[in-house]
Predict the 3D structure of the following.
Amino acid sequence: MPTFRGWAAIGAAGALFVLWFAFGEDLLLALAAFLLAATIGGTVYVRLSGPKVSLSRTINPEQVHEGDRALVDLSVASRRKVYRLRIEDRVHGLGSATFVADRVSAGDALAGRYEVQCRPRGVYVVGPSRVSVTDPLGFAEATSLVGSVDRLVVYPKVEDLTGVPTGRGQDQTISTSRANFWHTSGEDFYTLRAYQQGDDLRKIHWPSSARHDELMIKQLEMPWQSRAFIVLDPRVEPHVSAESFEQAVIGTASVLRHLFQSGYTPTIWAGTGNGTTVGDAAAYQVAMEELATIAPQRSIDLRRLVGKLRRSGMAGGVLVMVTGAPDEDDLAAFQLLSQDFYRTVVLSVGPGDNEEMLGFARAGALVVRTTPNGSWTEPWRYAMEHGWSIASAG
C-alpha cells in the first residue's frame, strides 16, 4: 500500500493535473503522470517482491526477576534484494525496538540487539516481528509478520535473606539449630492419592488404580525436617494498596528462593490446588512463574480453602504465612495450619500491631513486618537471630 510519501505524491499529482487543466502547461501534466505512475509502479513492485526474509530471535535470559534487564538478539537473512528494510520487534506490554537498513542484497545476514527493562512482573509475549520493505522511491510499502513467538517471564523481585528458622533433626523430640536438609524425597511409602495433572506417571500404583477405577499415585514420605510450607494470602482485603500486595509477593518469592537454596523442599500455595512443591530447578521455575502472574482476588473464603488444604496432609517443619495487615480470616487460617508445623513465621505488610498480630504472637509465631515501600532483608535477619529467644514454642 502507499506510504505517507506515496499518498503525498498522489495528492501532488492531483494538484498538478488541476493546474495543467487551468493553464494548459504540458510539463505539469507530465509531472503529474510521472508521480502517479511511480506510485502505482512502486505498489506493484512491493506486492511482487514483498519481504522475503527469515528471522530468528534469542532472549537471554528468558526468565528474569523484576528490575533486571534481558538482551534480545535478532538474526535476519533476506532471500532477495530489498530496499529500506524496516524491522519492528515488540515485547507486548513492555515496548518495541525498530531497526532500519537502507538496502539489503540477497543472501545478506543482518544482526540486531536491544535491551529490555523488565518491569513489572508477568509473562510477556515477544514477536512475531513486523517486517516491511518499500520501493526505491519510498512511495509504497509491503508488510508481513515473520519469526516465532517467544516468551519472556519476569519473576517477582527477590531480596537476599539470611538465616533460616531453626528446625528439628532426625529425632523429632530434639531441637537443633542446624538440621541436615536435602532436596530429594524419601524412599518410604507414605500414602495413595488421586492422580493430578502434572504428576510423574512413574509413580502410578497400578493395582490400586485398577481397584479404584481411577489413577492413583504413590506419595512418598518427604523428610520431616526438610519441609516448608509457604502460604500467600491471595485476597485483596488485607492490603491497603497495590504496593502492599506487591510487597507481599516479593516477600513470598524471597522466602521461597531462600529456603530452597538453604536445603528445604518448600511447597508454595497461593489460593489454588494443593500448592506447588519445589524439589528441583524445574519446579522452582514453575512456582516463580505462578508468582509472576498472581493477582489479588476478592470474595475468597480463605478458611474453607485452608481447611481443605489441611486435609490433603500438608505438615512438617516450617510454616510461613504471607499477608498484608492480617484480619480474622488470616488468624483463623494460621491457627488451623500451625497445628501441624514445628516452627511458624508470619510475614506482614502493614502499618503496625492489631489484635490479629497479637494473636499470631500468642500462638508462638515469629512475626516479620515491613511497609509497602520497605524491605524484608533486615526484618527477616533480625527475626531469625532474636525472635525465638523470646517466643514460645509453636
About this structure: Residues 167-188, 389-394 have pLDDT under 50 and may be disordered. The chain has four domains: 4-49, 53-155, 187-221, 223-389.
